[in-house]
Design brief:
The protein is of the alpha+beta class. It has nine helices and eleven strands. Helices cover 43% and strands 16% of the residues. The strands form three sheets. Strands 1, 2, 3, 4, 5 and 6 form a six-stranded antiparallel β-sheet that branches.
């Protein structure tokens, strides 16, 4: 049962919804401080480091240790999602030398804490992990780092291929375009009716190809736990070693899907000309440890684009028509030339 937590009225403060971004952040700091009270850590500093999808605080302890405290809204990731993330991170720490974050347990042994604070509606979920050293890999996309990224993917896939998740691990599977329970709005939504027939055919064709590919992968490359968001901005580089983080999308999925998501981000950030040069470099690193997965990489990358288009239909409908037209043209262009070509995002 959801605990509504203290309300703005009982806290005697302005309603949370009326606050500016800065006002909300000030109030949410109480969430972070309350979460930290649940741990055996003598905190001397707690600084906000990121505030995009989640709030990330850099926490420094009196003994010199440094941690990352992540505060998540339960509508973004559930308690089960985050507990599953912690299970995999525990297994990686135990079974491998992959330098991923280590989960810090609360005083009661919990990996995820549920926290409320006066003037903040509902509750938030907190997870405390070790802070990773280094720079974000986005700043140093050298060929050697890309090759090491391929090796990192393979090492994660190898561990997951032989790991049997414990009871309580999420049963969620990423085996289709929309895999998080989202409503499908591309063909039946109120904004979809405005698409011209050509765009609708192109989008439907990409949708069908992606689902056909997922169905074929189900037979050739069985589901295993994957990171599902291991792109270059979720990796740090320290003294030549890659440190993966942000495992909150941990889910059962396919190796090719895991790679497709990261490679699409690489193509969008670096441009397709450099992407096509780097793809075999990443593959070379991967194949040092594991065979490259069979399948249509582009079909799954277009599936990711369709997921994003569906998100726009849901949350930014005023942009849907323009984004849908762009995607339709992109899908047609990709079909004609057989590979990703610029532009991949609207200008």
């Amino acid at each position: 049962m959801t605990d509504p937590g203290p309300t703005a009225e009982t806290a005697g403060k302005r309603p949370y919804e009326t606050l500016s971004t800065l006002g909300r952040l000030r109030r949410l700091r109480a969430i972070a401080e309350t979460a930290l009270d649940r741990y055996d850590v003598d905190v001397v500093a707690c600084d906000l480091a990121a505030k995009d999808t989640n709030l990330i605080y850099r926490v420094r302890a009196a003994d010199g240790r440094v941690f990352a405290l992540r505060i998540t809204h339960p509508e973004w990731r559930t308690e089960s999602d985050l507990a599953s993330e912690a299970m995999w991170l525990d297994a990686l720490a135990r079974d491998t030398e992959i330098p991923a974050p280590k989960v810090v347990r609360a005083d009661d042994g919990a990996s995820v804490v549920r926290v409320t604070a006066p003037g903040v509606p509902g509750y938030r979920l907190g997870l405390l992990m070790t802070w990773l050293p280094g720079r974000i890999m986005s700043c140093c996309l050298t060929e050697s780092n890309i090759e090491a990224m391929g090796e990192l993917f393979a090492r994660l896939h190898l561990q997951a291929g032989s790991w049997d998740p414990p009871p309580g691990f999420s049963e969620r599977r990423f085996d289709r375009v929309l895999s998080r329970g989202e409503p499908e709005l591309l063909f039946g939504g109120e904004h979809a009716g405005g698409l011209d027939p050509r765009a609708r055919r192109s989008i439907r064709g990409a949708w069908d190809r992606a689902h056909e590919e997922y169905a074929e992968l189900d037979e050739s490359d069985g589901l295993r736990v994957i990171h599902c968001d291991l792109w270059h901005a979720n990796i740090k580089v320290h003294r030549g070693v890659l440190h993966p983080f942000d495992f909150e999308d941990t889910v059962r999925g396919f190796r090719l899907h895991d790679l497709a998501m990261a490679l699409l981000d690489l193509a969008e950030d670096e441009g397709t000309e450099r992407y096509h040069r780097l793809l075999p470099v990443l593959r070379r690193g991967y194949e040092r440890h594991l065979d490259w997965p069979e399948g249509d990489l582009i079909a799954l990358q277009q599936g990711r684009m369709l997921w994003r288009l569906n998100w726009i239909a849901r949350y930014e409908p005023e942009w849907f028509a323009a984004e849908a037209a762009f995607c339709a043209d992109l899908f047609e262009r990709t079909r004609r030339v057989g590979k990703l070509t610029d532009p991949l995002r609207p200008s």
